[in-house]
Amino acid sequence: MLSQTIQEALNKQVAMEAASSQAYLAMASWAEIQPGLDGVTNFFYQQSDEERIHMLKLIRYINERGGFAVVPALEQPNITFQSLQRVFEEFLKHEIAVSESINELVGLCLGERDFSTHNFLQWYVTEQLEEEALARTLNDKLELVGDDKGGIYLFDKDIMLFRNAANASGNMTT
Ligand code: OFO
User: Fold this and answer.
1) What is the mean pLDDT of residues 146-167?
2) Does the predicted model carry a pTM greater than 0.90?
3) Which atom of ligand 1 is nearest the CA belonging to 55?
């Protein structure tokens, strides 16, 4: 049985994963109406789906452990972006915030001696390492490219390869 404290903290994480899914959906929709960003569009649609799966995993776990998973209300995320660089900066900022939140949750579980939840959360710890690394790599590449249209074309063409490579090297999954 989950303690009230852990249940509340897990439900906060549910809301965070849902917000991530919405934020990345908005990025996908923005990218889709820009000329030539098919790769970035696919990347964020897929990223949004994965965040929803992260949310579902938490919901199932909370309910399985005798708690009650609360489906959260959603705020509208940023829907327009000044540039492709801004999109990826926001992506990285978001992933860093998620990692911090997961780390706090892990610490809380140790304090509460909830070793099952601590164990369950290890998947998220690994996942966040992979996602943050991928977000940093993509930001570095965009910084190199700057405003060069040819570079942005190649970035868009290769983005799913970077993603698949990150999936293969870690356990970024769904
Ligand atoms: Fe990368 O946010 Fe989910 O866990």
Assistant:
1) 91
2) yes
3) 3
